[in-house]
Design brief:
mainly alpha, two-stranded antiparallel ribbon, NqrDE/RnfAE, membrane, transmembrane helix, electron transport
Length: 220
């Protein structure tokens, strides 16, 4: 989570991209793991939860930023939760009207977006201190990063656990699905594998960067 900034941030590419890699909500900050583990047994569930969280994150960050000078400090957390809950209710009814099967598959985790640390953390530590445009761009990056993480798990679990992606068969009839992957333990297995891969790539990049700096300093 970002430290509370003392002044408004200038919009740069990093404002958006930090949520994709450097501060990815799942693979770096390990936030919102309940829905990540619970609803990613299929790709469609991952997409729906990711888009729902993205909408709530962007909408709540926008409104918090707009009202940041009007909300008293003493009730800011309660105010943020009310704002977030309003948009979560909108998403809840929208998904229910689009597909009851999807709504039932996601269960209570749609309503639990209200207490998702990713969203409340962005509201408290970032949107409440930044202008609207900056808050929106940062929220978009965080939301997209969260959705990508959900997709990484959802695609992997459905592919290995059912041999399909979005219901389309990807392997021959001889493929034996790994049923454990679409069961609760599979979420932990796949999340652990993705965390290992993410950390490995991160360390490789840091090592390469240090080597480049070492060569440059040696050459000078």
């Amino acid at each position: 989570m970002d430290p509370r900034p003392n002044q408004e941030e200038t919009i740069t590419l990093d404002t958006f991209t930090r949520g994709l890699w450097k501060e990815n909500p799942v693979f770096v900050m390990l936030l919102g793991l309940c829905p990540v583990l619970a609803v990613t047994n299929t790709t469609m569930n991952a997409i729906a939860m990711g888009l729902a969280t993205l909408f709530v994150l962007v909408a709540s960050s926008t409104l918090v930023s707009l009202l940041r000078k009007l909300i008293p400090k003493q009730v800011r957390i309660a105010s943020f939760i009310i704002i977030i809950a309003t948009f979560v209710t909108m998403v809840d009814y929208l998904i229910q009207s689009i597909s009851l099967d999807l709504y039932n598959a996601l269960g209570a985790f749609i309503q639990l977006i209200v207490v998702n640390c990713v969203i409340l953390g962005r509201a408290e530590a970032y949107a409440s201190k930044q202008k609207v445009s900056t808050a929106i761009i940062n929220a978009l990056g965080m939301g997209v990063g969260f959705t990508i993480a959900l997709l990484c798990l959802g695609v992997t679990r459905e592919l290995l656990g059912a041999g399909t992606i979005l219901g389309f068969q990807m392997f021959s009839v001889d493929f034996e699905p790994w049923i454990v992957m679409i069961l609760p333990p599979g979420g932990f297995f796949v999340l652990g594998a993705w965390l290992l891969l993410f950390e490995y790539i991160k360390q490789r990049k840091e090592k390469t960067h240090l080597n480049v700096e070492g060569v440059a300093s040696h050459g000078s």
